[in-house]
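Researcher: Next entry: histidine kinase (Propionivibrio dicarboxylicus).
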Amino acid sequence: MSPTNRYRWFHSLKSRLILWILMPTALLLLIDIAVIYRNSESIATSVQKVLLHGSAEIISDQLFYNEGTYDISIPPAAFELFKSRHRDRVYYAVHSQTGTLIAGGDELPRYPNRTEIEEPIYFMTDIDGEPVRVIVFAHTLTNAPSEEFAITQVAQTLRGHDEFRDDLILSTVRGHLLVLSITVAALFIALRWTLQPLMRFSNMLSQRSPGSLDILDEQNAPTELQPVIHALNGYADKLRYTLSSYEKFVSNTAHHLRTSFAIMASQIDFARRNSDDPRSQAETLDSIRKTMGESSKLINQLLVLASVEQNRQDRSTEAPVCLSEVIAQVIEQMAPLAQQKGIELGVDDFDETLFISARPHLLQEVFSNLIGNAVQHMGKPGGVTVSLRRDHDRAHIVIADDGIGIPLEMQPRIFERFFRIDPGRPNGSGLGLAIVKEICDMLDGTVSVSTPSNGIGLQFDLLFPLSSEQA
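Model: Predicted structure:
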């Protein structure tokens, strides 16, 4: 399996589900097999001990004490207990209390420790290099003094024991493998059946026409798919709104440019008809220059919007910028126009130590639009005040004027693209405040508009997160 296919396999929900089910199941089966092995060993040992004990009792029952001598007759039943296909070797020996061999062979070693009457003792040893299990069984004798006893030992090799244990384990493993096989087969069938709605959903999406934003049926979908369909429908709604906004934006832009070009064409025609009047031509050229300036401003604003979108995708090149320096530059640029209109530009509560991460030209665009609008649309002599202060981990900028203001019902819409308070006014494209909002959003900041507490003029509040060095 190639690394790519292996990566895809591990990132498949079906594969993960199979692993999460099969791995614990397999682990439990392995643990169970280990327990069964231990139990099988114990069972096989118990069975062998029972056989040894039975054989030792049969032999013991045939031993008699007669006036200082011992009589014993070993019946075949004592060894038929061990009869099996495994051909185990069986050894026995009967010793008196003093250690005299009464019957059997001398292959079996004597048990060196103390024995209790009628209490079997088992131990392991080797005979001719083969392991055997031995029972030591002390018992009283018929017709013998009460203190007289004998010791019977019977031993058997472990061939049948091991074979019996292995049969038990093999039988258990076969059962577990059968269960695991049935589980795997049932799991694959269940997954295939369960994932059919997902596959149908995938096929339905792949067969949709390009650009389709139709709402998907959420109610009849499986419960697990409903959150996904709900999210896709929400995304489609947002995309539909975005596309509608872009269509409206392109339409409005084309309308503004077409209007500007139509005005310039009319002005040129007028100049050609009045070619003999130098004064009229000069006025017409001034009008053409003004119209071209407005068109150039519109194009520049469109380029700024495109730059904002580009910077939104990549903010890695941003560096800390001193807010007070940018605001001071903008105030200096606006000072001649403000003086011409009788407007006083001033600062109040101005913290010169605040830095934010941004590109300087975008900040200049924000403050040029806000301060420029305040100066341009004041409507009378007055004042524009800018304040800059720290608000926890943010920089708070307030730009307030005492001009004619904006009606309260129109304030929520002033950040929309191409929105103008007075559509009849020839100057202004309605993009300035939209650009301000886009830049603030891109910088993780906020901008809001309100009427000052004295009810006169307009106030803009901007909040920007401070650069990481100051936060």
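Model: Note for the record: The chain has a mean pLDDT of 82.
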